[in-house]
């Protein structure tokens, strides 16, 4: 009999706990070019994805593919360096498996970051945007299938996917750090194409300020499993294509890298104040 998702999570958790005994209360998913947080954590243990049972292997350039354990802002933290994208061919269970494992390890607060295209007219490239809500346009739902009540309820409430207390804390800390931040609604879709002019326009009309190819599946599973979520995007390009603007992966990475230290400071500040 093939092991259930629950059994796989347990097996992975036990492996990790055999290598590192501390219970993390904070989990962070590092998005494109946002590796700067890795330099803020006092590293106590690193595990390569390839050595962790049941973990998929990361393939995208610029993603290291390891779990990093240590202290961030005085909290025991697990950092996921390298995430799994649906467009790479992973199914939704693989994309979200590490989130399940983080929860099983004891994580209560999940921080997710990403690079995103901006559609809100007030955004500039390099802006840091606190995600206050999302729209799920992925073609497959991470909770589709038989529900295991040990992992969460069949029909999760999604009225507060991004924890309002953490958002308020983030805004306060951003002010203290004199860091301008925006807030916005993130639309997640599968990619891997960037959007056409008509698509950016439509995504804005239906209520999106930001668009990207990640985050939403992980947040859904985090909510299902009972975590409090904080999400932030770095605006890496503007989907306003009135002129002949093209978007490249290189410019996305460059913009993300430039803003990354600021976002890392902000997240560290929030974690320290939790
Ligand atoms: N669209 C989708 N995903 C993205 C974008 C975008 O404009 N920028 C960074 N990730």
Descriptive key words:
binds hypoxanthine; 274 residues; alpha/beta
Hey, roughly how much beta strand do the residues contain?
15-25%
What is bound: which ligands? Answer: hypoxanthine
Number of domains: 1
- The CA-CA distance between the termini, in Å, is 42 Å
For the secondary structure, the number of strands is 9
Structural description of this entry:
With 274 residues, the chain is α/β, with parallel strands linked by helices. The chain has one domain (5-273): Nucleoside phosphorylase domain (Rossmann fold, 3-Layer(aba) Sandwich). Helix content is 31%, strand content 24%. It contains six helices and nine strands, in the order H-E-E-E-E-H-E-E-H-E-H-E-H-E-H. It has helices spanning 5-19, 92-105, 164-176, 197-205, 216-225, 249-273, and strands spanning 26-30, 42-48, 66-72, 75-81, 109-118, 128-136, 181-188, 210-212, 228-238. Strand 6 (128-136), helix 3 (164-176) and strand 7 (181-188) form a beta-alpha-beta unit. Helix 1 (5-19) packs across helix 2 and helix 2 packs across helix 5. The protein is globular. The mean pLDDT is 92. The protein binds hypoxanthine (HPA). Hypoxanthine binds next to strand 5, strand 8 and strand 9.
